[in-house]
Amino acid sequence: MAKNSAQGLLTTLDDLFSTQEEREVASQPRVQEISIDLIDEFPNHPFKVRMDESMMEMADSVKQHGILVPAIIRPKEDGRFEMVAGHRRMTACMIAEKEEIPCIVRDLTDEEATIIMVDSNLQREQLLPSEKAFAYKMKLDALKRQGKRTDLTSSPLDNKLKGITAAQQISEKSGDSQPQIYRYIRLTALIPELLDLVDNSVLKEKEKLQIALRPAVELSYLTQQEQRDLHETMLTEDCTPSHVQAIKMRKFSEEGRLNMDVIFSIMQEEKPNQKEQFKIPKDRISKYFAPGTPAQKIEDTIVKALELYRKRQREQAR
């Protein structure tokens, strides 16, 4: 008993003669070098790690200077770790042939880990709609499990939400308004093929089909089969629906009257300010192009061929 009292006295004296700064430093988590082989990815991580120029620059920086900001990981029951914040840094380390990465190990609940993971990635310069969609949904669900108000019974586009909602908290971190956050979350109901086309609208790849955010939100209310039928029609006709056309499809779907014929009919409607187009059935020209040739390249090739044909016709007329 006396021994325990002495130990307690020593602990108290240590506290008395240490500064507040020393106690704060002692309580801070230590940076540890952790083997990359022991770190698993975050389950259903919504952010893509792209092997682009930015990643190559980061890898070069790691080779020269190492990792300046440690990653955040959490321990798993099997002795391994789970990456929470630092997926791009870990990839850069792997490219730079580093075996370890500096990390801060923190005991986090699933909800805490999800919120940190989302917030740490929302600062990226370019985020795809699909990344925002699943990230916002994951954070909203995490906040809901923590007991925060989410007002999910309200209309997704309701601007009159009362109190501090989870969407407001996400809005403060991301810069997107509450209605915009709910629009992004609706995208999680799209089939992957259509969601890819929404991402294309941000990547601005001219040779690929693209769907803007607002029509994509309307299309998210279609059934999975209706979305597959629409995607097939889009590929066949090489076009995407406008916002007005998407609204029509949603209305027909809610009435149980949307089928392949209705989708085709709506897609054939002339869009506002749409230029008159001349279409050639694919089966008439497919033999002249390799499978998978982008529609834009096919169009450019046909136009060049017609220009050459017109030039020869003029030469023959002289």
Largest sheet, order of strands side by side? 1-5-3-4-2
- Integer count of domains: 4
Mean pLDDT: 83
Roughly how many Å apart are the termini? 118 Å
Brief digest:
By secondary structure, this protein is α/β, with parallel strands linked by helices. The chain is 55% helix and 7% strand.
What would your notes on this structure say?
Helix content is 55%, strand content 7%. It is α/β, with parallel strands linked by helices and 318 residues long. It has four domains: 31-108, Conserved hypothetical protein from pyrococcus furiosus pfu- 392566-001, ParB domain; 126-186, no CATH class; 190-268, no CATH class; 282-312, no CATH class. It has a five-stranded mixed sheet with strand order 1-5-3-4-2. Mean pLDDT is 83; it is low at 5-14 and 148-162.
Summarize the helices and strands and which ones pair or pack:
Blueprint: H1 2-17, H2 20-27, E1 31-35, E2 39-40, H3 53-65, E3 71-75, E4 81-85, H4 87-95, E5 100-105, H5 110-121, H6 129-145, H7 166-174, H8 178-186, H9 192-203, H10 213-219, H11 224-237, H12 243-254, H13 260-268, H14 282-285, H15 295-317
Parallel strand pairs: 2-4, 3-5
Antiparallel strand pairs: 1-5, 3-4
